[in-house]
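Example with several molecule types.
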Amino acid sequence: MLTIGKLGAQAGVKVPTIRYYEQIGLLPEAGRSAGNQRLYGRKALERLAFIRHARDLGFTLEAIRDLLSLSDNPEQPCVAADAIARAQLAEVERRLARLTALKAELERMVVQCAGGKIADCRVIEVLGDHSLCSTDHRHPESEAGP
Amino acid sequence: MLTIGKLGAQAGVKVPTIRYYEQIGLLPEAGRSAGNQRLYGRKALERLAFIRHARDLGFTLEAIRDLLSLSDNPEQPCVAADAIARAQLAEVERRLARLTALKAELERMVVQCAGGKIADCRVIEVLGDHSLCSTDHRHPESEAGP
DNA sequence: CCTTGAAGCTATAGTTGCTAGAGACATTAG
DNA sequence: CTAATGTCTCTAGCAACTATAGCTTCAAGG
Ligand SMILES: [Zn+2]
Ligand SMILES: [Zn+2]
Ligand SMILES: [Zn+2]
Ligand SMILES: [Zn+2]
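Resulting structure tokens for the full complex:
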């Protein structure tokens, strides 16, 4: 049996994060010691490692919630899980495309600036006028996340 | 003179967002009409477009605050502005590297799954065990953003 | 002139995924 | 036995908005 600190160390998750996951129902309520401290077994460690890994791959907690409940039904077909993964892949590809455009614009900005006064700074100038950009990088939709 | 709605439409920013920017001091307090409604001129539109464009390029509001106060001093040298842009470029490059790794792992997952039961699903399996991954994609640090 | 509907106002709370702090109890090493 | 660490609950905060409620103001049509 592991205390919350040991569990966190094993899974690479901070202690408050574990309590947070329990609070939002991603982890089941842990059993308690005589002194009211949480105790975890191997199953909890596996579940937490699953969550951590999925987070590292950029899945939202909502997606992970679904993935976990799917993985609790091993006899069901896996199409739903695969669909979640494919949606995540699509999301990553969208972000990648956007970031690639951003990188191009930022590089252009910093390269073009000759480094004089603010009044002549290409960075400031481009920021004030999107028509100076070479691509249409504008926020098409979603955001955030790893 | 523009009402807040017209201003938002011109700059591509939602009305509550404009009020939010004013609240956190990114936009100066707007003048008011006789009936207490905000009124904006060309300068406010330019400033808002600047903010919007910088946001579209992934700058944080804190960075934008600094960029705006720099652009208010046109005689100063532009090194500080360029440094902010280069930092943003570096950040974008870091995210790009991470997302590229994530994309590779997600592709592997969905390609390898044969589509049977959850018990045999490669997606679920890989999520539970990072050692099945081909790269070390783990969250090295920062996150979030465009 | 008056009514109606859209647009504006303030203030508050919710979103996502945590993280930090306060103040009290539990456990463990020396 | 004491001191240091670990854990407990609860609350509040981060970014950057978004949404809601309940009001007032404005512009256009009849
Ligand atoms: Zn410059
Ligand atoms: Zn642009
Ligand atoms: Zn599958
Ligand atoms: Zn992995």
